Amino acid sequence: MAIGWKGVFPAVTTQVREDLSIDLADTQRVVDDLIRDGVTGVIALGTVGENNSLEFDEKVQVLSAIVEVVDGRVPVITGCSEYDTRRAVRYARAAQKAGADGVMLLPPMVYVPKPHELVAHFRGVAQSMDLPIMLYNNPPAYRTVIDKDVLAALVEVDNIVAVKESAPDTRRFTDFRNAFGDRYVLFAGLDDVALEGLFLGAQGWVSGLTNAFPRESVELVNAIQRGDHAKALEIYRWFMPLLHLDAEHDLVQSIKLAEQVMGRGSERVLPPRYVLEGARRAEVIAMVEKAAATRPDLTPTRAEPVLA
Question: How far apart are CA 273 and CA 269, in angstroms?
């Protein structure tokens, strides 16, 4: 199954009103602003989109609203994060009906499957619908590893096409490339090792902090793709203090707070999460304000960008 996924795919936020109802119109505005700033795809209802804090019907409503506002300008890939295969199949089918362009499929939540169970879960969802699938590997968060043996067992499943690699061990990009060639499109999925993943063959970046600084994120990937390594390093080093937030337990609150400081969205989150308070809140605000005050020059120093 051929796909054209590459570049910067922010894991977009789900906007919430003061009464904790879902603000579909503001979610659409946030997504539209990101597209206008040059992102090349969006991940709806990932971790940053608070997938597991939403009811099934709310997930479908949010996804449908995002598909509507995107209107075919970039691919819309939706997170599929469920407790078991039956629930995952139900949501994946609903996502296809809602017009998603792909599914970012997570391992089962809570239960840690054995490798053959993980393969069966992925295969079961893939065979239930026709959308292309990006598998999401994040061992620190989900205690499950999508290793070479799992990927080898899925090679013949045509619509499993990509892997979002969020393990901090960047050697995995080279190991996967050596083992499978270009069978799986690789995406960098952990913000503070994104540059390393992109240098090692990832075609795109699923990013959290792009929600606050989309233009810098897009230019970072553009610079790598045109071979302007000096510009990429300049942006990456400027960005790194914020990128570290993506690896923290409170990443959702931190990213939504960064988004609010930059005037792009609201920090409100759904329970059991609560907005940051005290010293942590002040720390994140100071980091974002410093980044905003010291933004790097985005003027290309080599050939024209390939994403913009």
Answer: 6
Alpha carbons within 13 angstroms on the beta-carbon side of residue 33 total 18
Run of H or E residues at 98: helix 85-98
290 assigned to active site: no
Task: Find the helix or strand (DSSP H, E) in which 103 lies.
Answer: strand 102-105
User: CA 219, CA 39: separation in Å to the nearest integer?
Assistant: 10
Angstrom CA distances, 186 to 107, 160, 166, 242, stand at 17, 12, 11, 23
Our answer to whether residue 136 is catalytic in this structure is yes
Strands (E), 185-296: 185-188, 204-207
Tokens of 156: 């013949």
Give me the phi and psi of 152, to 5 degrees please.
-65, -35
- The answer for residues whose C-beta is within 8 angstroms of residue 36's C-beta and 6 or more apart is none
Of 6, 164, 231, 256, which is the active-site residue?
Answer: 164
Token look-up 């290793």 returns 147
Q: What is the C-alpha separation between 220 and 243, in angstroms, rounded? A: 13
- Using a cut of 0.90, tell me whether the model's pTM lies above it: yes
- How far is 50 from 283, CA to CA, in rounded Å? 23
User: pLDDT, tens digit, for every residue of 208-257?
Assistant: 999 999 999 999 999 999 999 999 999 999 999 999 999 999 999 999 99
Read off the amino acid at residue 300: P
Q: Please count the other Cβ atoms lying within 10 Å of the Cβ belonging to residue 168.
A: 14
Q: Which of 6, 59, 91, 136 is catalytic?
A: 136
